[in-house]
Every structure is written in structure tokens, then in C-alpha cells.
Write a structure and sequence with these properties.
The protein is mainly alpha-helical. Helix content is 81%, strand content 0%. The chain is built from 8 helices and no strands.
């Protein structure tokens, strides 16, 4: 049991390193954007610019997720000791966590335009509850992959409420149908391709 929990901790640390580019880009863009968007709000063209920025931001992180999903595990093998190589198969799943984190930061960005921020703690609490419940249901069955799914579901719940709350304060055209299809396509294609590549490598290795 001690080894099992140690493996989870190590995988979470490795996931953080492998997805560091997503976190760094997110922090840089959002910190710069937070200072700029209040000045832009005074201009008539602000809504159009906000929409363009938000949709480009979502596209950027879908692209980065796909890259890390496909090759993050390989980079882990190259740059870590052999004892950590077994964790490479989990990188693709664990990268779902920073993806949904970045999406939440993008979609909830306009909550700061509101005069009252009282609902923010409730959004965070909702995410926590979903994560705990999902963890209880998924981790015993899926182990480390269950950790990735449960945490991602928590951020996904926060995405929904953050989006609705943000839209009630300041309406931004997120092109929701298009971006939803894009996100689903990127996630499933990334995981499918990675699993296909892994199975192909195993078959070739056993020949």
C-alpha cells in the first residue's frame, strides 16, 4: 500500500513537470491579460477582442495538450531514471488535469468584472465535492487513471459553473458548440492515438 501511494505521488509530480509548459503559458498569458482587460473594457470593440482572445486561448491549450499527450511519456523516459519509466503510460491521462484547469481559467476570467465575487467559493466547493465523489468511485477501479479522471471531472464541473457565472456578468462569445467539439476531439484523438502507439510498440517489441 505504501508503494502504491508513493507511485501516485511520483506520477502526480511527473505529470506536473510534463505539463509545465501548459501551466507556464497559462500563468504568463492570464497575468498579463488580467492587467490589460480592464483597460480594454472601456473600448467599444472590447467584446469582440475578448471573444477572439478566449477562443485562441482554448485553441492554444488544446494544441499543447495534444503534443504533451502524444510525446510527454517519451520525454519522461528520456529525462528520468529507469525506475520512473513505468509512469510514462499515465502522462497522457494526467495531462487532462492541467487542460481542464486552463479551460476553467479562460472561461471564468470575466467573473472579475462583477461587483460581487461571493459565488466564487461555491464554484470551488462544487469542484471539490465532484472530485471527492468521483475519486471514491473511480480510483478503486482505475487506480492512477482514476485520479486523473476524478480531478478532471472536478475542474470540468467548475468550468460549467464558472462559464455560467461569467456569462451572467459579462457575455463573451466562446463559440461554445465549436470549442466543445474541438475539446472532445482533441482529448479522444490524443488518448486514442497514444494508446494505439503504445500497443503497436508492444507488438513490435514482442516480435
Amino acid at each position: 500500500k505504501h508503494s502504491y501511494y508513493l507511485t501516485i505521488v511520483c506520477c502526480k509530480m511527473l505529470e506536473s513537470y510534463m505539463a509545465l509548459c501548459m501551466v507556464v503559458v497559462s500563468s504568463i498569458v492570464l497575468n498579463s491579460w488580467n492587467a490589460f482587460k480592464f483597460d480594454l473594457l472601456k473600448k467599444k470593440s472590447s467584446i469582440k477582442v475578448f471573444s477572439q482572445f478566449s477562443n485562441l486561448f482554448i485553441l492554444l491549450f488544446c494544441f499543447v495538450f495534444l503534443i504533451v499527450c502524444l510525446w510527454g511519456g517519451d520525454l519522461l523516459i528520456i529525462f528520468t531514471d529507469q525506475k520512473y519509466h513505468s509512469a510514462s503510460v499515465y502522462v497522457s491521462y494526467l495531462c487532462l488535469i492541467p487542460l481542464f484547469t486552463c479551460l476553467y481559467q479562460s472561461m471564468s476570467s470575466y467573473i472579475s468584472f462583477g461587483e460581487n465575487q461571493s459565488l466564487n467559493p461555491y464554484i470551488g466547493t462544487t469542484g471539490l465535492i465532484v472530485t471527492v465523489v468521483a475519486s471514491i468511485l473511480l480510483i478503486p477501479k482505475l487506480s492512477i487513471i482514476g485520479v486523473a479522471y476524478a480531478t478532471s471531472l472536478g475542474w470540468f464541473a467548475m468550468n460549467i459553473f464558472g462559464y455560467l457565472y461569467g456569462q451572467s456578468i459579462f457575455k463573451v462569445n466562446f463559440q461554445l458548440p465549436t470549442n466543445t467539439i474541438l475539446i472532445i476531439f482533441v482529448i479522444f484523438s490524443g488518448l486514442f492515438l497514444k494508446n494505439f502507439i503504445n500497443e503497436y510498440v508492444i507488438i513490435v517489441t514482442n516480435l
